[in-house]
Amino acid sequence: VLSAPRFVLVGDPQQLPATVISRDAAALMLTRSLFQRLQEAQVGATMLALQYRMHPAIRAFPSKHFYHDQLQDAQQAGTSRAWHADPRFAPLG
Q1: pLDDT at residue 85 above 80?
Q2: Cβ within 8 Å of residue 35, ≥6 positions away
């Protein structure tokens, strides 16, 4: 990474941080993720806002509470499986 002209990291800074038990590691500020340190250093980042895995009703909560309503659903997100048509598996609400 140090000699590369460019590198790409893929991850989610909103996910839970690592559990650090060592006081020595905590003193070295290793309780902060690499993503958090890069954000604090104002390194540019791009949010991938189009999601394909969650049903729209499930996606709504994390989008609102963690991503400032920026998550969007792909056209077929959450509705492309046969069991989604079964009312026993419909989202609550």
Answers
A1: no
A2: 9, 11, 12, 13, 45
